[in-house]
Amino acid sequence: MSDEQSKAQEAAALADSGAPTIFDKIIAKEIPADVVYEDDVCLAFRDISKLAPTHVLVIPKVRGNLTSLSKAEESDKDTLGHCLVVANKVAKQENLGEGYRVVVNVGPNGCQSVYHLHLHVIGGVPLTWPPGVPQTTII
């Protein structure tokens, strides 16, 4: 099991505990972050464990029930759509015109290690396909 898989398994145990996440602490300015975009709904900042030259996380400022995309409901449409628009703004701001990837990890098997919905905007290099799928499992 990789380090990220282990983190995801550990995080799942606390997923809906209501405890503040690292992202809640970043929003509250209790933990510093390299913020690249902010508005009333979202915050975008550089991932400290970057996977590519550009790796930015986009999060809603109010977590609410959106601990994971799997918890999304009809009432979350505006927030979810806004997060995608912000991801695109960030990609443009970061000069990712040649392409980028937006990733949402969901649950322990999807390697979600922070239970506060977040979008990864990854780019700055050519990306391969398929992402994150062991070659032995491809049918």
Descriptive account of the structure:
This protein has helices at residues 3-12, 22-27, 77-93, and strands at residues 35-38, 42-46, 54-60, 100-103, 119-123. The protein is an alpha+beta fold and 139 residues long. It has a 5-stranded antiparallel beta sheet, with helices on one face. The chain is globular. The protein is built from 3 helices and 5 strands, in the order ααβββαββ. Helix content is 24%, strand content 18%. A hairpin with a 3-residue loop joins strand 1 and strand 2 (42-46).
Give the topology, please.
Elements: H1 3-12, H2 22-27, E1 35-38, E2 42-46, E3 54-60, H3 77-93, E4 100-103, E5 119-123
Antiparallel strand pairs: 1-2, 2-3, 3-5, 4-5
Key terms:
single chain, 139 residues, alpha+beta, five-stranded antiparallel beta sheet, 5 strands, 18% strand, globular
Q: pLDDT under 50 segments (min length 5)? A: none
**Overall pLDDT level:** 89
Secondary structure class reads: alpha+beta
Number of strands: 5
Radius of gyration: 15 Å
Separate helix tally: 3
Specify the oligomeric state: single chain
